[in-house]
């Protein structure tokens, strides 16, 4: 910021300015003339006297570089109009500016919408094109036909590259020529001149997708290293540099003598089809800071970023936007803050210490944005990470609305980046991240459901509660890789609390407590590999509590407690119409070791699933059940119907060193049973019954029976 001790208080009479809300044309022209004169005379602090200033319908207040504007007690009112687009205070390509204290009112309620179209582009304060280092403080915008505050870019380009004409097979060699033997690479054979005035005006260029941010059929470059190759005017090759799409290549950093460039990247030429890419030099606002501002009652959005890098909202209040007023209704998108249209040109957006609430569609939405940081905010209404975004971070926020989204830069799951939530509090709504990688750490979810998809989900030291008797499938875990550590799930009431998402590759629960009360069970996870260690599954209440875990390739369950829970571990055969067993690798891959299974609830209040109250196993080829305690405490029911453990064996079972104990308080002479059954087969199954190897030794059964069924005897080939 250029500084000066001189303060210029705008002379209203000198410039023909009215501060009583009249004479829009002369007032607007006078203010603009005064601001230009102050700049030309090196007056870097400008104060406008208090009052109401009517801004001409066809004009805007144009702010100038290197100036500190103080607009306290000033109300700038847009003259009623029928324009589809306008702004009231405009920063257009300027630098090093501070704006303080302005109150800006649009013409939403008096606007003429009769010309048709959305009329959604009438903005209060706009920073556009190559604005740089703009600070907007203590300002208020309201009742605009579009957005209260906005940053926007143009889409200037050096040129485009259309497949196949401007592309070629191969990479650039050390002489700067195309080597078409590098068949895994594609080169943009067209040269781009970087000496023109358009590029010089911004000082950079970058490689991008098409007008919608995409890369066309058979190509996705968001996570692909792009080489920019430098040439002199006579085609002398000056070497190359690695870059990434949408990242600036600054003119000042080019090799001496560079006049033109072209690009290459790791991509199969033949897989591309009709792709259109651009080399851009768009004018993008950078380092724009909104602090202690208010934006409300605007027709479209409270704030929008339609192009911007290093944009910050700090201590702002954005509320009641896009809701109906007496004479006008809202228009889409209708959020508090919306980040889109610049695609991956939108980067490093920070929202801090803000209160965003009661906007028609939700609190926040972003589409195809690279790097969003939200910290210490309160959000009321839906919060959406959408599009093909990249790297989202949430810290110390309070959410009173659903959270939805994903973090997949390229649209390819393996290229996903992170959505990270730390020390956040989410109340009363669903949290659903369906792509990329999600991390939750030290978060509290109160009366909230969660749904996970995508590549990875990691949950650390979080607490989840849910209490809604009418809801079904309030939780689902469908990530490819799922880890939950040191967390609590307190599920008090719902119709059914959990449903399986997609099949996972690996699931790991460590020191997790699942408390279920007056609710049904469900399918906890469906995975190839499972680890459960030091966990507690505790059920109470009157509803059916049956749950299942589908695990096919391997399982390790140890040092955990299962209390009044009917839980079945299933090798997935039950879910296949041909009853294909989990793969048998000829070694034991499934184990249930050093656990406690306790049943101390009356039969009538904790309804059992027929195939295994307590814990049961089916379709698992080879299984170790060792060093466990199975305990049944009689609650005035016949213990013969209380199966603490039921196993449908397949190829191998080691049942050793377990303790099975029944405490009979009712005087009933029947005993609790542990039932070992044969391989489960539906009637008419054509699959051969496997021959099971059984090891059963050193088990201590106290007032209990271990029953080997006739089905198992047939599998063994002789009676036991």
UniProtKB/TrEMBL annotation:
<dbReference type="Pfam" id="PF13229">
    <property type="entry name" value="Beta_helix"/>
</dbReference>
<feature type="domain" description="Right handed beta helix">
    <location>
        <begin position="277"/>
        <end position="383"/>
    </location>
</feature>
<dbReference type="InterPro" id="IPR039448">
    <property type="entry name" value="Beta_helix"/>
</dbReference>
<dbReference type="InterPro" id="IPR011050">
    <property type="entry name" value="Pectin_lyase_fold/virulence"/>
</dbReference>
<dbReference type="InterPro" id="IPR012334">
    <property type="entry name" value="Pectin_lyas_fold"/>
</dbReference>
<dbReference type="InterPro" id="IPR006626">
    <property type="entry name" value="PbH1"/>
</dbReference>
<protein>
    <submittedName>
        <fullName>Right-handed parallel beta-helix repeat-containing protein</fullName>
    </submittedName>
</protein>
């Amino acid at each position: 910021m250029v500084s000066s001790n001189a303060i210029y208080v705008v002379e209203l009479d000198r410039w023909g300015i009215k501060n009583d809300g009249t004479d829009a044309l002369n007032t607007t022209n006078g203010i603009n003339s005064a601001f230009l004169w102050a700049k030309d005379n090196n007056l870097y602090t400008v104060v406008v006297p208090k009052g109401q200033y009517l801004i001409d319908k066809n004009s805007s207040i144009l702010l100038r570089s290197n100036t500190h504007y103080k607009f306290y007690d000033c109300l700038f009112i847009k003259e009623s109009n029928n324009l589809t687009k306008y702004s009231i205070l405009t920063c257009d390509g300027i630098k090093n500016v501070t704006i303080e204290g302005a109150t800006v009112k649009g013409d939403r309620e008096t606007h003429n919408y009769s010309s048709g179209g959305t009329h959604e582009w009438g903005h209060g304060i706009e920073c556009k094109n190559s604005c740089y280092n703009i600070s907007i403080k203590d300002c208020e915008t309201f009742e605009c036909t579009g957005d209260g505050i906005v940053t926007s870019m143009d889409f200037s380009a050096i040129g485009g590259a259309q497949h196949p004409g401007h592309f070629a097979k191969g990479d650039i060699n050390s002489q700067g020529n195309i080597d078409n033997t590098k068949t895994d690479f594609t080169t943009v054979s067209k040269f781009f001149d970087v000496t023109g005035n358009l590029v010089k005006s911004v000082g950079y260029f970058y490689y991008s997708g098409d007008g919608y941010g995409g890369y066309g059929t058979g190509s996705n470059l968001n996570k692909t290293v792009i080489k920019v190759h430098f040439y002199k005017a006579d085609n002398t090759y000056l070497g190359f540099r690695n870059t990434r799409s949408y990242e600036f290549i600054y003119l000042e950093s080019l090799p001496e003598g560079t006049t033109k460039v072209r690009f290459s990247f790791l991509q199969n030429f033949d897989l591309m089809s009709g792709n259109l890419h651009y080399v851009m030099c768009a004018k993008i606002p950078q380092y724009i800071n909104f602090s202690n501002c208010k934006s409300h009652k605007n027709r479209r959005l409270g704030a929008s970023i339609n192009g911007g890098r290093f944009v910050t909202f700090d201590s702002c209040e954005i509320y009641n936007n896009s809701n109906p007023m007496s004479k006008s209704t809202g228009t889409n998108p209708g959020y508090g803050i919306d980040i889109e249209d610049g695609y991956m040109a939108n980067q490093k957006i920070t929202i801090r210490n803000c209160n965003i609430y009661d906007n028609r569609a939700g609190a926040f939405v972003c589409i195809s944005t690279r790097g969003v940081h939200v910290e210490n905010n309160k959000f009321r209404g839906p919060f959406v990470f959408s599009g093909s975004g990249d790297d989202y971070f949430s810290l110390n926020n309070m959410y009173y609305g659903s959270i939805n989204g994903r973090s997949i830069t390229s649209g390819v799951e393996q290229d996903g980046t992170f959505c990270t939530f730390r020390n956040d509090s989410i109340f009363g709504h669903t949290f659903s991240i369906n792509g990329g990688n999600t991390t939750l750490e030290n978060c509290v979810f109160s009366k909230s459901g969660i749904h996970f998809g995508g590549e990875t989900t990691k949950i650390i030291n979080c607490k989840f509660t849910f209490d809604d008797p009418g809801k079904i499938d309030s939780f689902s875990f469908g990530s490819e890789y799922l880890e939950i550590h040191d967390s609590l799930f307190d599920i008090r009431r719902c119709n059914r609390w959990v449903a399986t998402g997609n099949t996972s590759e690996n699931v790991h629960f460590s020191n997790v407590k699942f408390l279920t009360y007056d609710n049904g069970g469900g399918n906890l996870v469906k995975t190839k590999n499972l680890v459960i260690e030091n966990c507690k599954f505790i059920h109470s209440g009157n509803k059916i509590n049956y749950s299942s875990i589908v695990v096919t390739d391997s399982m390790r369950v140890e040092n955990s407690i299962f209390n009044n829970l009917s839980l079945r571990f299933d090798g997935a055969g039950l879910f296949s119409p041909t009853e294909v067993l989990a793969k048998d690798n000829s070694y034991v891959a499934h184990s249930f070791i050093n656990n406690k299974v306790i049943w101390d609830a009356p039969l009538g209040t904790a309804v059992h699933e027929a195939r295994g109250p307590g814990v049961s196993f089916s379709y698992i080829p080879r299984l170790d059940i060792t060093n466990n305690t199975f305990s049944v405490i009689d609650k005035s029911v016949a213990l013969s119907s209380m199966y603490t453990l039921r196993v449908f064996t397949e190829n191998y079972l080691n049942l050793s060193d377990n303790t099975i104990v029944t405490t009979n308080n009712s005087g009933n002479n029947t005993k609790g049973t542990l039932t070992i059954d044969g391989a489960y087969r539906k009637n008419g199954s054509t699959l051969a019954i496997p021959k099971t190897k059984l090891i059963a030794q050193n088990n201590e059964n106290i007032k209990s029976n271990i029953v080997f069924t006739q089905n198992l005897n047939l599998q063994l080939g002789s009676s036991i």
